[in-house]
Structure formats: C-alpha cells, structure tokens
C-alpha cells in the first residue's frame, strides 16, 4: 500500500509533457470559445468545466494513480500557469494572442450589430451588466466593450454620468462666489 503512494507508474517526463499539453489544449479551447465563456458562467458552463476536469484527468495522469504522480501533475500545472501569467504580463503580443482584444458591443447607445451573436451573448446579459455599472439602460451608454477577461466595461454618455467629487466641489465654489457677489450687492447703499 505505502509503495503505491510513492511509486510513480508513468515516467516523470511523460507526466510533465502530458500536463503541459492538456494545459495548452484547454487554453486554446477557452480562447476559441471566446470572451463569453469567461464573462457570465451559467449552469451549463459550470457543468462543462466540471466535466472537463474529469475528462482530461486521465490524459494528465495516464495509468498513474500514485500520490506522487498527482503531486507532479499539480506542481506542473501551477508552474506552467505561473509562467504563462508572467509571460502575459511582460509581453503585450502574447496577451493579444492568448487572451484576445476587447470587442465593442455598445456604441452611442445602441448594440453593435452582430456583436452579441458573435460573442454568444443575450441582450439581457448586456442590459444587466450596464445596470451593474450604474447605467439605466443601453441608451445611456456612449461605449461598451467586452474585454478578453469577459468583463463589460462601459462609459456612460456625459449627461448620464453621476457627478464626481470634483464636480460637486466646483459647483460649491461657484455657489460661494455667487453668494459673495449677492452679499456685496446687498451691502451697497
């Protein structure tokens, strides 16, 4: 029993290669699946992710059920992921290649034709994302783009934006100046 825990039944190099190849395959699959795959995971997406982990398990571990074999696979995944993440942070070309670029989905208060179909998004998902970012409706959005990470980033039209602290301070300064002028006018004989 103890021997089975520590005896790796698949050569370590093969286990590392299997893990790297499965990681690369899943990276490509999620890249091809597009931004929506990461944006709003629904029940079906969770089912796919759970099943994927089970489907690729044997591809990673092979005929090896040892504890040490599992540790080697897990360490390989973490190291490869850290390397890819570091590469993405340093190289903008790698970022564009592996993660993609933002896609404009809303422009001047209207959904960009074909954008939702291309990204497999429903209009309700876009409307909800707009409301979550303090927009009242798509009509009030100047620009909305779906980033490679699946996040919708919107810029509200100027007349739809909330006042900033700077706006309030500028207004207070103008009101103070008006009050001062009124006080001067009232003080004149």
Structure description:
The chain is an alpha+beta fold. It folds into two domains: 2-99, no CATH class; 101-189, 2-Layer Sandwich (CRO Repressor), CATH 3.30.240. The protein is 63% helix and 10% strand. The chain is built from nine helices and four strands, in the order ααααααββααββα. It has helices at 2-6, 12-33, 36-39, 43-61, 67-90, 92-99, 115-119, 123-132, 165-187, and strands at 103-107, 110-111, 141-146, 152-156. It has a four-stranded antiparallel sheet, covered by helices on one side. Strand 1 (103-107) and strand 2 form a beta hairpin. Helix 2 packs across helix 5 (67-90) and helix 5 (67-90) packs across helix 6 (92-99). The longest helix is centred in the middle third of the chain and has 24 residues, at 67-90. It is elongated, with a radius of gyration of 27 Å.
Order of helices and strands: HHHHHHEEHHEEH
Question: Main beta sheet, described?
Answer: 4 strands, antiparallel
Shape: elongated
Q: Record the strand order, biggest sheet.
A: 2-1-3-4
SS summary, helix count: 9
Mean pLDDT: 82
Protein structure class: alpha+beta
* Helical amount: 55-70%
Taken together, the total number of domains comes to 2
Q: Total number of β-strand segments?
A: 4
Low-confidence stretches: none
Beta-strand fraction estimate: 5-15%
C-alpha termini separation: 105 Å
**What gyration radius follows from the Cα positions, in whole Å?**
27 Å
Family: Belongs to the UPF0702 family.
Transmembrane segments: 16-34, 41-61, 67-89
Domain YetF C-terminal: 92-161
Pfam families: DUF421 (PF04239)
């Amino acid at each position: 029993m103890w021997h089975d825990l520590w005896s790796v039944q698949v050569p370590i190099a093969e286990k590392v290669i299997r893990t790297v190849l499965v990681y690369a395959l899943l990276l490509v699959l999620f890249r091809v699946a597009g931004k929506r795959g990461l944006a709003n995971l629904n029940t079906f997406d969770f089912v796919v992710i759970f099943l994927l982990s089970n489907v690729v398990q044997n591809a990673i571990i092979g005929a090896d059920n040892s504890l040490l074999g599992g540790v080697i696979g897990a360490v390989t995944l973490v190291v490869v992921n850290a390397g890819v993440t570091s590469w993405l942070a340093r190289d903008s070309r790698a970022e564009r290649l592996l993660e993609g670029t933002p896609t404009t989905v809303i422009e001047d208060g209207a959904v960009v034709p074909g954008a939702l179909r291309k990204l497999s998004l429903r209009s309700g998902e876009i409307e909800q994302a707009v409301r979550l970012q303090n927009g009242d409706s798509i009509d009030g959005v100047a620009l909305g783009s779906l980033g490679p990470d699946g996040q919708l980033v919107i810029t509200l039209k100027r007349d739809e934006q909330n006042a900033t602290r700077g706006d309030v301070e500028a207004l207070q300064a103008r009101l103070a100046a008006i009050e001062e002028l009124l006080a001067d006018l009232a003080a004149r004989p």
